[in-house]
Amino acid sequence: MDELHAPPLWQYDSAMVHSAGTLLYRHHNGRLEVLLIHPAGASHRRTPWGIPKGMPDNGEDYEQAARRETFEETGVLPEELTSLDFIQYHRVRKCVHCFTGPAPADAAPNCDCWEVDAARFVPMDEARRLIHRDQLPFLDRLEALLAQAEATS
Questions:
Q1: Mean pLDDT by 10-residue block, N- to C-terminus, for the chain (153 residues)?
Q2: Quick one: which of 3, 20, 100, 153 has the most CB atoms within 10 Å?
């Protein structure tokens, strides 16, 4: 198998951690906003924000895990989702699979989960400043997806 057609390296790496999450969005006051979370704990005070995510439970696929983790961490139950593919973190052996969709109209994020100290919708420009740099491609992919949908409608 040549290098162009070889599976991604993470498929051979048993030490790679896989997680799945969502990038839910809404339009509010004429601006695109996305739902982000901040991890709880004193050791995370300076940790960047990110998408709600976690590892799949036994028998779950990535989309099921993303839905469950989003609900557990934010109290928001995702509806229709589309894959934004995955990213690999640069400094740790972690692969994050992301799904996106419009947030439910009545979405009111909360952080009743011990893992999260904040969950809120933020405007896209603020999201770009807050989000973990390795997750930035998800914001780019979401904007491209929405632009493509607008162009075809």
A1: 42 76 96 92 76 94 96 95 94 92 94 85 97 96 95 86
A2: 20
